Fold each of these.
Amino acid sequence: MKNYRLILLFLLLPLAAIAQKNDVVINGWTNIGTFKCANDNFQNSRSVYSFSGNALPNIVLKVVDFDCRNKVMTADFRKTLNAQAYPTLTIRFLHFEKVRTNFFAATVEVKMMNVSRKYNIEFSEADGSLVGNKRLKFSDFNIVPPKKMGGMVYVKNEIDLFFSLALR
């Protein structure tokens, strides 16, 4: 009987790990469509985050790990964020508090291209992950959104930063 319990435990453990997911995605818009750039390396990490006490997360992401699922768009995204000169994008939690059951408020510092901005972000807890998003602007970080074909195709100034962090 003990052996069956052990086997069942080992079979169910991977399913519990799947529910917890790390993800950082930047969603944006052009005058002709949308784009979505995900940090695949972070998504595949097995990091688990704690939000208790003073040990709040500081997430450092490599810009070259973002993939927009389109070779040209990915290259343009990395060029826009000047990945060679500024190889990382940092998300640092400064303050975190529970507002009500499964809902939280946080102050987060986002650093891109050596420019830091603080944002208040609401998060919710679902399936062992903390999920939230915030609308930012390229101009917040002194970034000029790219234009192509003599300005006929352009990226809009607003982007959405989406988080999903596996909780401890």
Amino acid sequence: MSKIKDGDRIMVGGFGLRGCPDDLIDALVASNKKDLTIISNDLGSPGIGLGKLLSNNQVKELIGNFYNWNTDVAEAKNAGKIKVTLIPQGSFAESIRAAGCGIPAYFTLASAGTELGEGKETREYNGKQYVLEEAIYADVALVKAEKADELGNLVYCKSARNFNPAMATAAKYTIAQVGEIVKAGELDPECIVTPHIFVKAIVKGVN
């Protein structure tokens, strides 16, 4: 957690409670880092997972889309305690992928003609309006994988893979919580999803 500063933009993998790096989140809660921008599909549930950060008043802004199962988010937003930026889920995933690929922005049909597209640049292609979405970058990414080797190559478990691989590429510093760490050369190269070049630290997790 020493790599995280007050005010940082933090990406956190997971969809709901699946593929969520709970041990790293608990460590972030314990660190009491403040004014964080949390970039994640959702914010867990009230007092569970990422929801702990909101309960502990560590969140300044949320960037994501699926907050309806944590009612604390709506209450905090309506009370003016946090800022919430909603992005369609597909655009959210693509904006993170774009950041990892060095693509600064792209045009998409998603959100065109809706409130989520208001105030954004639009352009017409083949008779349809497209919205300009910018890439989403982070200072630190917290991701979860099933297994890593000592170099930091990552293998994921089924649906727990979700946003983790893309987020690992889109941050300046990526920390991976893993269930098992093996020696270099023991992983099947065909199963490695995130190459070690993107991973700065690996932590043997409990969850």
